[in-house]
Amino acid sequence: MTRPPSGLPQAGRLARFLQSSLGSRSVAAAAGVVAFGFVGSRVLGLVRQVVIARAFGTEPELSAYWVAFRLPDLVFQLLAGATLAAAFIPTFSRVHLRAGEEQAWRLASSVLNLVAIATGVLAAVAFVVAPLIVPWLAPGLGEDSGREAELQSLAVELTRIMLLSPLLFGVSGMLTGILNARQHFVAPALAPMVYNASIILGALFLAGPMGVRGLALAVVVGAAGHLAIQLPALSAVGMRWQPSFDVASEGVREVGRLMGPRVIGLAAAQVNFVVVTFFASFVSDEAISAVNYAFLMAMLPVGIIGMAISTAVFPTLATQAAARQIETLQASLASTLRVILFLALPASIGLLLLAEPAVVLLLQRGAFDAASSEVVASALRFFAIGVAASATIEILSRGFYAMADTRTPVTMAVLAMLANVALAGALVAPFGIRGLAAAASIASIAECVALWLALQRRLGGIGRRAVGRSLARTGLATALMAEAISLVWIAFAVAGVDVGTTLGALGLAVVGGLAGAVAFVGASAWTGNEAYRALVGRLGV
Q1: Residues 220-235: pLDDT tens digits?
Q2: DSSP 8-state assignment for residue 323
Q3: Fewer beta carbons within 10 Å, N or C terminal of the chain?
């Protein structure tokens, strides 16, 4: 789904604002395109969840579908995911800068070919061993309803259907890296929209006759669309594919060297997903679906704010690091941090306070009833606590990747994963899926703080005072926003409004959201927040 023409002027204003905040016209334009893509993708992702919720609610078969996602996603992340951001783009930038365009394209072809072959082999192995691995991902699946064998068998079947998607995503992910490295963001921004649109259509038209198998098939079709839409853009950036591997070349070896630690880091991230699925399977058959709904809703602002801006800035950071422009790199990181924190902190607290009406409005229809809303909202509140930290991690980790340092962020990710495992094990029994969400948020906050301190030491400072001052002012404005929303909650409670209904939830979301926005904007203007002044100036408000 594309945005209507009336939204385009706002996208242009956003680009101008980012130009001021991030200090580069090219970065601002890239951020505007990537933000457009991420907003479109996340909106479609939200629609996807709405359609899936309407069709399946939190029924046990859907839990089998979420479990089945884990193994194909692991195959993709460990190869293409590890190659893209941390290894390929910085290496491509250095080779292009120092050895020229021909050598850079040869590197791109070699890495693309190697990733495609390795992903295909790993997917084939996963297909064979799926009956052994999948049951261990959610050993409690089906116990609540006495359908262990049925649901475990379904999860294996769905896993095997979706194992074609990592091969497609592996190639497509590399195309995204190649295009982003050449400062081309349009096709990569559209690709996730195609993927989400495919799953939406699958939920609408295949869920009835095929059930969750229709969703699994739609995932594969969406992955193919994700690849196909990027192919024409390669000619636009001058990509010349070669059937080469060049495993002995310095560039390919450098990608492999940088990949190693990143594989460990992504494995740690996947362990976090597995841990949530593992423990949730013992809570109830519906818990896996509920915690996935809550997590995906919490990741909406992370994607729109943290990932969009960080993805657009990263090629510039990599180029600055390759040219050893340390002061410029420090300034880029500091200004990006201020922007992300200014947007992510109120989003985090706003989502925490308005979790219930958000879930009711977005998901409560069809098979997704009030009981489902209650359990999803309870988890969403605790996931929301870590939203700002998760968004900030996106740019902090890319600061290290730009300097070809994958070890530091990977070390932090592994430590955060271990903390998450320990906390999840301790909190799931007394608090259920709320404990799992709280564990994830605490681990994210700890990882964010550790990355911030490590990056400060590595670069000798990245605007600590300026970032701290901006964070303090944003924090004050967010506190006043929270107070305004809380007062609206109290007023609705006194008036006896049932926010569990669509009308009540809509009223609370609109009135509470507007009151919070007015309080936040007023406080930002009163404190003279730099990010707010830039926003007002550049958007012409």
Answers
A1: 999 999 999 988 888 7
A2: T
A3: C
- pLDDT of 296 over the 90 cut: no
- Please tell me the least confidently modeled range out of 240-254, 339-353, 516-530: 240-254
Region 463-470: mean pLDDT is 85
The answer to whether residues 18 and 287 touch, using CB atoms and an 8 Å cutoff, is: no
Q: What b/e readout covers 104-113, taking b as 16+ CB neighbours within 10 angstroms?
A: bbbbbbbbbb
Give the Cβ contact number of residue 405 at 10 Å.
20
- For residues 422 and 181, give the distance between their C-alpha atoms in angstroms, rounded to a whole number: 38
User: What's the CA angle centered on 520, arms 514 and 521, to 5 degrees?
Assistant: 90
37's CB contacts (< 8 A; 6+ apart) are 185, 186, 188, 189, 190, 192, 193, 308
Confidence band (pLDDT; 50, 70, 90) for 84?
low
Contact (Cβ atoms closer than 8 angstroms) between residue 64 and residue 153? no
Q: What count of other Cβ atoms lies within 10 Å of the Cβ of residue 418?
A: 13
> Alpha-carbon distance 288 to 530, whole Å?
42
Span 196-207, average pLDDT: 92
Q: Are 318 and 87 a contacting pair, CB within 8 Å?
A: no
Per-residue pLDDT tens digits for 89-101 = 778 878 887 888 8
CA contacts within 13 A on the Cβ side of 34? 26
Number of Cβ within 10 Å of residue 365's Cβ equals: 15
Q: Are 232 and 187 in contact (CB under 8 A)?
A: yes
Question: What is the C-alpha separation between 127 and 159, in angstroms, rounded?
Answer: 8
Element (H, E) at 117: helix 101-137
Helix, strand, coil distribution of the chain in percent, nearest 5: 85, 0, 15
Q: Which long-range contacts (CB under 8 A, 24 or more apart) does 487-494 make?
A: 487/515, 488/512, 488/515, 489/353
In angstroms, rounded to a whole number, what is the distance separating the alpha carbons of residues 437 and 383? 5
The three-state DSSP-derived secondary structure of 467-530 is HHHHHHHHHHHHHHHHHHHHHHHHHHHHCCCCCCCHHHHHHHHHHHHHHHHHHHHHHHHHHCCH
pTM score above 0.70: yes
| Rounded average pLDDT over 104-116 | 86
Query: Do the beta carbons of residue 305 and residue 343 sit within 8 Å?
Result: yes
Structure confidence at residue 377 (pLDDT): 95
The answer for residues whose C-beta is within 8 angstroms of residue 339's C-beta and 6 or more apart is 18, 21, 22, 309, 531
Q: How much is the mean pLDDT over the chain?
A: 84
Tokens of 69: 């996602």
Alpha-carbon distances of 425 from 250, 264, 375, 390, 419, rounded to whole Å: 44, 22, 19, 21, 10
